[in-house]
Design brief:
The chain has 113 residues and is of the alpha+beta class. The chain has three helices and six strands, in the order ααβαβββββ. The protein has one domain. The strands form three sheets. It has a two-stranded parallel ribbon with strand order 1-2. A two-stranded antiparallel ribbon has the order 3-6. Strands 4-5 form a two-stranded antiparallel sheet. α3 links the parallel β1 and β2. The longest helix has 11 residues. 11% of the residues are buried.
Length: 113
C-alpha cells in the first residue's frame, strides 16, 4: 500500500508533456489541447432535465480540447455512442470536421486521422 501511495504522489508531479495519459476535469482542461480526448460518462446531455448552461459551457470546453480524435463512446446522451467514435480533424480556420475513418469499439484511432 505504501508503494502505491508513493507512486500516486509522484504521478501528480509528473510533467504533462511527457505523460502517456492525463486524467483531468473539464475545468482544469481550459486553455489546453491534446491530440486525443476521451470524455467520461459523467457529462449530461442537453436533453437532461438537470442540464444547465454552465454544464453546456463545460461540455463545449471538454469537446474542443481534442486536436485529432474525440472519443464520446461513454457519453450516453449521444445516440449510438457506445458503438463507435469519429476521429476529428481541426480545420485551418479553427473549426472541426469528421475525419474519413470512423473507429469501432476495440480499434485504435488511425494515425494522423
Amino acid at each position: 500500500m505504501y508503494r502505491l501511495l508513493k507512486a500516486l504522489e509522484h504521478a501528480g508531479k509528473s510533467d504533462e508533456r511527457t505523460a502517456d495519459l492525463i486524467v483531468t476535469t473539464g475545468h482544469k482542461a481550459k486553455g489546453k489541447e491534446w491530440a486525443s480526448v476521451s470524455l467520461a460518462e459523467d457529462f449530461r446531455g442537453p436533453d437532461s432535465k438537470h442540464f444547465s448552461s454552465e454544464e453546456g459551457n463545460l461540455l463545449y470546453v471538454a469537446v474542443t480540447r481534442a486536436i485529432s480524435a474525440l472519443d464520446v463512446s461513454r457519453c450516453s446522451f449521444i445516440p449510438q455512442a457506445s458503438k463507435s467514435y469519429v476521429p476529428i480533424v481541426r480545420n485551418r480556420d479553427g473549426g472541426y470536421r469528421p475525419a474519413q475513418h470512423s473507429v469501432q469499439d476495440g480499434e485504435d484511432a488511425p494515425p494522423n486521422a
